[in-house]
Structure formats: C-alpha cells, structure tokens
Amino acid sequence: MWRRIADGPVNHVSSDHAPSTRRHKDKGIWQAPFGLPGVESTLPLLLEGVAAGRLSLERVVQLVCEAPARLYGFSRKGAIRPGADADLVLVDLNARRSLADEAIVSKAGWSPYADIAPRGLPVMTVARGRIVAEGGRPTGEPGWGRFLPGAAG
C-alpha cells in the first residue's frame, strides 16, 4: 500500500469521515453505519509515512492538497499562489500524539488507530487566512465555514 501511495497509481488520499460512535457500531454488522472516523488520523498517518521514509512530504502535499483541489475544481484551493485562499496546514514532523479514543475531538469519540502515536502532526490550520485549529483543537468560529460545491460529480 505504501509503495502505491508513494509512487502511484494512487492519485489522492482522503477520508470519508464517518463519525459514528461505538454505540452506533455495536448494533451489529447489518445495522451499523458504514465507514470509520478518519478526519483526525489521515494526515498524521501519512506524516508517519514521511517520518519512516515511505514517501516524501511533497508527495503528501500532492495527495491531500493539490490533487483533491484539482479533481473537485477548486481553483482557489490546493496551492500557495496569488489569488488562492491562503489555506495552510503547518506540521511538526517530530511531534507525536496518540490517536487514542480519549484524544479524538470529533463526534465519533474513538479511532480505529487508537494504539498508534504517529510521528508528524498538524500543529496549526489556517483557512482563508484565519487560524481555525491549533494544537489539535478547533479554534474557528462556528458558522464561519462555507460550502463549496465541487465540479466533480
């Protein structure tokens, strides 16, 4: 899997982030909602791949920023350039934080990666020039985000 992510044919990485709680998942295989929580673990796990030498930081940027913006037709996203939205994620490639259930911020409250403490973490997220997350916690104002209809269908 790492080789396919690093060298292709994988062209982007994302998470569907299905924030179902453990109570929802305990209903049994046919009644439980599909998917796993992943919005908090996708980038740290990819940065662990960078720390382990499995892929480059540039490749992570291609996979989670550039390619999704291009695929969904978001011309103001995915790159640092004049006219873009000033969306940035600052990472610390040496930081570690457990993905243990009690560290999860989302509604899910659990992680399938609870036993992992990846190397490399996002430490600040800037959206449209404003800090919206810092130190693993959201800091943005509720309602400030905006829906972007994608070109891909």
Task: Characterize the structure shown.
This protein has 153 residues and is of the alpha+beta class. It has 4 helices and 4 strands. The chain has a 4-stranded antiparallel sheet with strand order 1-2-3-4, with helices on one face. The longest helix has 15 residues, at 57-71. The protein starts with a helix and ends in a 15-residue tail after the last strand. The mean pLDDT is 89.
Largest sheet: 4 strands, antiparallel
Beta-strand residue percentage: 15-25%
Unreliable stretches (pLDDT < 50, length at least 5) are none
The chain-level mean pLDDT equals 89
**Beta strands, count:** 4
Measure the end-to-end span.
27 Å
Sheet with the most strands: spatial strand order? 1-2-3-4
Helix content: 10-25%
Shape: globular
Task: Outline the fold blueprint.
Layout: H1 2-7, H2 22-25, H3 42-51, H4 57-71, E1 88-96, E2 119-127, E3 130-134, E4 137-138
Keywords:
153 residues, 4 helices, alpha+beta, globular, four-stranded antiparallel β-sheet, 23% helix
Question: How do you describe this structure in short?
Answer:
With 153 residues, the chain is of the alpha+beta class.
